[in-house]
Amino acid sequence: MSDKKNTYCNCLYYSANALARIITKKAEEAFSVVNLAPSYAFVVMTVNKNPGLQAGELAETMMLTPSTVTRLLEKLEIQELVKRHTEGRLTLIYPTAKSVEINKKIEAAWYNLYQNYINILGEDTANQLTENIYTTALKLEKT
Amino acid sequence: MSDKKNTYCNCLYYSANALARIITKKAEEAFSVVNLAPSYAFVVMTVNKNPGLQAGELAETMMLTPSTVTRLLEKLEIQELVKRHTEGRLTLIYPTAKSVEINKKIEAAWYNLYQNYINILGEDTANQLTENIYTTALKLEKT
DNA sequence: AAATATTATTTGTATATGCAAATATTATTA
DNA sequence: TAATAATATTTGCATATACAAATAATATTT
Fold first, then answer.
1. What is the C-alpha to C-alpha distance for residues A58 and A52, in angstroms, rounded to an integer?
2. pTM for this structure?
């Protein structure tokens, strides 16, 4: 029984995905107050902070593929939470009245998410792990 | 620019998902030699090692929801890589000739995945991180 | 300047995953 | 023993994400 449980826990693929699913669930709860799935909330925050950002830059920042970002932007545009402006082959993204209006709520939700998991993990532990995970992602990405 | 990159890297949701996507891509490559997406490969390995395993146990072991496991099993059954046996309200899962036959290949692929990332990260570092991620997932799950 | 290569974005399609509800079975209580 | 509760699995539906190909625009070369 516990054999089964422990067979794969030393596999980074397995562990990383398990953690991602669990923390995503928490993030969904946290951002539900603004009716946004977490990645959408991140797009809105990022665009609010960087008006005129290129779609490709956003993809790189979020470590998502361009096609995924296109899909996120499509849906956010329908909700009037971003505005796309095509300039030549570039797509520049801008905040909207609505996105600016809810920005504080989004950031508060983000903060609540943070509080939630540092309460469980401890702040230093959580921060160290997060940084470790991030730098690992960067290392593996470059291969 | 690098502001944008660094805004979210201290968020566990963001980092964990980024890492999961990247390592999943590597896992997909590794398991492509057996034409299986990683989660399917894990199911096959697990069932080969634990014949008669319950669907729910498998879900718990893999930290996936029961419905997801049902979907995985459906598709594996079509490919004759598992056999489901309904006993009352339980579903017991068994290996097949085919799944037993490819088990060594799957385990080799798994080992290659491991070699791949420990080459980049260093074995001890990778193992420590993996364990850290796993125990964190467990902690957060229980909340 | 025309031809070609590079770059940025979008679109068609596929898939993994989960939630909530439905179903089916077993256990418990009255 | 009949009624109810608990448990295990499956189904209907929704969604995030990616790959590969298509499109469109700019840069480079000849």
1. 10
2. 0.93
